[in-house]
Design brief:
By secondary structure, this protein is mainly β. The chain has one domain. It contains two helices and nine strands; from the N terminus they run H-E-H-E-E-E-E-E-E-E-E. An eight-stranded antiparallel barrel has the order 1-3-4-5-6-7-8-9. Strand 8 and strand 9 form a beta hairpin.
Length: about 200
Amino acid sequence: MKKILTIMIAFILISNTSKAENYVFGGGKLFNYGITTSDLQNINTSLVSLGFSSSTSKTDNTGIGFDLGLGFGITDAFAIEAGYVNYGTLEINTNTTGPVENIKTEITGNGLTLAGKFDLADSGVFVKGGIHSWDLSGKVSTSLGSSSEALGSGEDPYFSLGYKTPGSSSGFTFSFDYYAIDDGDISSLTLGYSSVF
């Protein structure tokens, strides 16, 4: 994925002879990780199967991340974007009895994105579609210590629907973003800024 991204960026820089604008972008992201009640129950069932008397897990299902990237204008209405995304931290807290234990699970990750961005006429609305190459890791902390492990990596679709003030080359943006990850997904609301260079 990194090689493909490098080749695409080099190709765009060499071939971009139109008057379309290139830009940098970035923003803060509020993630929803899509953890369901049944996901939490699976954790509890697994711990009871290990010998605990009971287990209760909870999460606020949110985290704060960010993205940074470059956009390369192909036409006035279409650009290719390449970026980095930090998926924030999903925290799950589990309390057990028999024996009593407080378990904290933290899942973090980051990825690279490659997408086409379409501006819909002069409405300020834009749509992005592409792929993201993701890498996730987890850390479990207990009273006996902590352990960190790689959880997986892969490439999956990425989509975004957003708004930017029409007629301005630089400015604030707001978007809803969707990242598929294997059989699951995560989403985010992003408040960002883009600036022409």
